[in-house]
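Long-time lurker. I teach an intro course on protein structure, and each term I like to show students one example going from raw sequence to a predicted 3D structure in C-alpha cell notation. This year I'd like something fresh instead of my usual example. Would anyone be willing to generate the C-alpha cells for the chain below so I can use it in lecture? Attribution to the forum is fine with me.
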Amino acid sequence: MTTLVTGGGSGLGRRLCRQAAARGARVIVWDLDAAAAAQTVELITAAGGSACHQQVDVTDAAAVAAAAADAGPVDVLVNCAGVVTGKPLLEASDDQIRRTFNVNVLGLYWTTRAFLPGMLARDSGTIVTIASAAGLVGVARQTDYSASKWAAIGFTESLRAELRGTGVSTLVVAPYYIDTGMFAGVRTRFPLLLPILREADVARKVLDAVQAGRKQLMLPPLVRVLPVLRVLPVAAFDALLDLFGINRSMDHFVGRGR
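-- Reply from a regular --
Happy to contribute to a lecture. Here you go:
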C-alpha cells in the first residue's frame, strides 16, 4: 500500500504520514519545503517505516505531473496541502488571495488528475480531500479560505459522482480548527461542543475512515448539523453562529503561514 500526502512536511500532513507508515504503508511525502519533507521521512524511517520525499509545488500542474510520474502507482492520495491568510477581505493582498485558491483548490485538480488515471486502470484507490468546517459555513476573516474549502467540498462531491461504479473512492474531511499551528491563536467559545481538535486524533480518524471506506468525515460531530441549520432564516442562522462565537474565532489569529 502506497500513500502519498501533499503538505506532508508539517502539521496534519506530517502526522498523517507518520501514522500511515506506522500502519504499514509506504509513504511518499510531498511538500514545497524540501527540508521539512526530508525531516518527515527521517522521523518515519527512524521508527522503522518506509518513506521517501519529493519537493513539489502543487500549484504547478507540470511539476505535479512530472513528480507523479517519478512517484509511480499510488493507492491513497491525501490532498492535505493548504494555506490560510486569516485577514479581512480588504486587508488580504491580491497575491495572498490567488495563492489560497492555487494551493487549496487548483492543487486538488493537478494532483488528482495526475494519479486518477492509474487508479482507474487498476480499478482501486482512494482520493482524500482535507477540506474544513469552513467549507460548510462562511467565517469572518476567511473570505478566501472558506470559499476555497467550499470549492474543495464541491470538487470531491462531484468527483464522487463521476467515479460511481468504479473501484476508486473519495473521502472528504471537514474538521473544525486543529492545533497544528496553521490556525494558532484561534479560540472557541464552547470547547466541549466545538473543541480545538488534536492533530493526532484527526489523523487517526482520517486513516480509520479511509480503511472503513467512508465517504465523509466531519469533526466534531456538531459540524454535521451546519447544513441542516440553513433552513433557518438568514438572520437567525447568523445569530446562532454569533452565539457559538464562530465569527469571533479568528479575532486573535496568528497562524504560521502554512
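Some talking points for your students: The chain has one domain: 2-248. The chain has a mean pLDDT of 96.
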